[in-house]
Amino acid sequence: MSDWEKSSTARVVPPARPRKLAKVPFVELADGRLQGVVSSGSDIERVYVSSVASGTYAFACSTNNNRPCGGARGSFCNHIRALITEAVLQYGADRVARYLRAEPAGGAADAASLTAAMTGTRPPQADGKTLAAPVFSRFLRHLAYLELGPVTSPSPEMQWFPPTRAAEPEEPPNQTHATPEEGAGRQTAPVDGLDEALAAVDAFDRTLVTGLLRPRPDRAADLVELARAVAGSPLAAGVAEAVEKAAAGAAGEDHFVALAAARTALLGAAHDALTSRADETTGRTRGAQAPPAAGDRQSVNLLAAARTWLCELARTGWQGIDHELAGGAAPIVSAMLPQPGLRRLATLLDGFAAELAASCPGAALDRVPARRWGDLWSRALLLTCPGAAGPPAAAPATGRLLPLGVDLHEHATAAQAQVHAVFEPADGTPPRLVRASVSVPKPDTVVAAGVWQLLRPHLSLLAALGEGRSMDLDGMPLTDEGDLIWDDAQARTGEPADALATARVALSTAVAPPVAPLDRHPTRLAEPVFLEGYDTHQDGDTLTFTVAGQTFPVDTDRIPEAGPLTPETVAASGACIALLRWDDGGFRLQPLAVLATVRRKSVALHAGAWAGGTTDKAGVRAEKAATDAVTVLRERAGRLLRK
Predict the structure, then answer these.
(1) In whole angstroms, what is the distance from residue 22 CA to residue 45 CA?
(2) What's the rounded Cα separation, in Å, for the pair 104 and 479?
(3) Where is the segment annotated Disordered (predicted)?
(4) Integer CA distances (angstroms), 385 to 261, 330, 350, 388, 588, in order
(5) What is the CATH number of the domain that holds 407?
């Protein structure tokens, strides 16, 4: 498999691009169609449901009350033309053309050429009455994300959904992260057992590509490799039985859970080894793991429904997915999202299903993000076990919190801001590395600065970070894993605190938290580090830092678009706060803040500087555009969801 196929954070679906929503508040590529909702030009209370089918270009347009559009008689009406225009703005012309299987004359795709290519075939008119209801229902579900409240407990699975600055490529790249030097990011001494554990994971992931309904002999051999890797462990007997059943195409849900547990255990061991190597590199002390607390018994019916869907995915395989199978998660997610105890699983399923839907049909995929989808599948399956993800035990924490930087995670319908910080307890015990998180559901058209607007009302720490101030905590719940369960009532803004100065002075002595057993995975490795005096090297789009004889790729693609930090300023920096991560077989750095020279002045730039609001000119423009988009969606939600 290629490096991209072995990456847990491979970018599969390009992010939606910002656009104005007044005319076309909803557009999507789903169910084999370009479809959406278009506002009426004459009546604010009326909307039209429009669609164009992939391949045949069969079109339909009617109101949500099934009244046919007078303009859609024999050819595309203005509503459909507006839908195509906005789809190109949101997804890019090339992606829309590939999805619709349209070939514009001259090869260069834009909204006009796509429309001309499709209308030139004299497409048939579809039955708008049968299409309007499901599309309008999806629009209402889209709006309902704005009605759901935030969650301030951590959602570890959002680590698999980093933001991306990358533009959509013409063809899928051969590698998500290219490195200019052989071995960049890899430690000089190999990590014992790491390659063997990952090889067993890759073997199992190959079985998920083709599916386990009728596995081929070579895939049965891959299953045996997984069983061999956990032989001698407490999982051995259950996994051996599961492998035997799966190889015969007779695996039940419990067998799939056992296989997911074996895969997770191997990656947990890899996480532990990599964390030990990172601790050796940073000289950091790590706290001891407390016994896991018993989780809450959640809604068994919803968990069972999710488990059934995930097991059907495993039987079908990634190459067998279609829109019907990918869409099977939607009603489950809709029922889970309003329940805080199920939000973690619902958010994971929603992001996973969106990637599968965007990749349909699976039979047409040239390659598959095997490790990433294997990660998402196995984590989701284990989270369907009742009690697997209950609320963590927490104790009150009082002291001073010194923010370091914010790490943003997002997929189409969810976003999480996670602030990394140093906590100085009031009782004089050693400082600790901690995190504070807030996550919110969102429509996929809320992007860039709009994401900060949804997050900031629920985490005052974001404003303190932007202002360069500390926060004083009084009895804030803090878990053994270092997560603050944030409550604004238990925090107040403190004295000025420069993040780079904090990192330079306090990071070396701060105690790192342990990791919960279920969350042990290399993707969860995100260790704050402070670097200065490094050499930078730029090779095309790839930037590396060389420090203390080690060369690390810098993942500038994870820098949020809505902020002053850019790949160019990172390349020109002389000091940096970063997260040390691991993916694609090597360590890499994710910048959170840098000290760089801009117009002959030394300036500190933070990835999350706009998270709490900004007076920066570019930031103000981004804020206004985002405000307009959210306002339109809230207005539509008010009219349609509360009737």
Answers:
(1) 13
(2) 56
(3) 154-189
(4) 11, 20, 18, 6, 33
(5) 2.40.50
